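Anyone up for a design puzzle?
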């Protein structure tokens, strides 16, 4: 599977999303994929035309708001209408949040909706993770890699 390239992008306030993003990259490297790990902070929506197979891991803060490190990217992508990502970007979103908040995983949901609106093709549905995410993350991670391997065969 050395010809699979996976880009993992993260937006975090207190490190959870970055930690899970790194765990996905570690597993991908075990499987000999080429990997890219990047914070969303310095990116623009147009950069998603170059990320190919893409996982976005992002938390929600305030009342459905982005983590501050990814605020600029999120504000831009909520409004973005171009580029057309339909032939370039196969993606999914791992959204971190807390069910006690009214807008549970609101930022991840809005990023997901934005990439879909730009034509990005979803490789699997978004996964929302509550605060106690270890077990659900493990289950999701197995599904994620099974899906990639199914796409690659
Ligand atoms: C002040 C504060 C506001 C938050 N607001 C929301 C929210 O609106 N919706 C939600 O689903 N989670 C919310 N959360 C939960 C975080 O998204 C959750 O703790 C997440 O795991 C943090 O991930 P990070 O370390 O990658 O930023 C909030 C947490 C705090 C402390």
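Challenge accepted. My sequence:
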């Amino acid at each position: 599977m050395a010809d699979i390239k996976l880009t993992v992008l993260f937006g975090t306030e207190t490190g959870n999303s970055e930690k899970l993003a790194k765990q996905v990259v570690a597993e991908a490297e075990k499987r000999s994929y080429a990997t890219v790990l990047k914070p969303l902070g310095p990116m623009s929506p147009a950069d998603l035309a170059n990320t190919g197979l893409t996982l976005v891991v992002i938390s929600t803060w305030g009342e459905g708001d982005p983590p501050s490190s990814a605020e600029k990217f999120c504000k831009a992508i909520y409004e973005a209408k171009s580029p057309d990502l339909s032939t370039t970007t196969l993606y999914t979103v791992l959204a971190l949040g807390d069910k006690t908040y009214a807008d549970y995983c609101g930022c991840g949901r809005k990023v997901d909706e934005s990439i879909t609106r730009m034509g990005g093709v979803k490789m699997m549905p978004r996964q929302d993770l509550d605060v106690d995410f270890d077990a659900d993350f493990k289950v999701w991670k197995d599904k994620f890699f099974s899906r990639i391997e199914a796409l690659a065969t």
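A detail worth pointing out: Strands lie at 5-11, 34-39, 53-59, 90-96, 121-122, 127-129.
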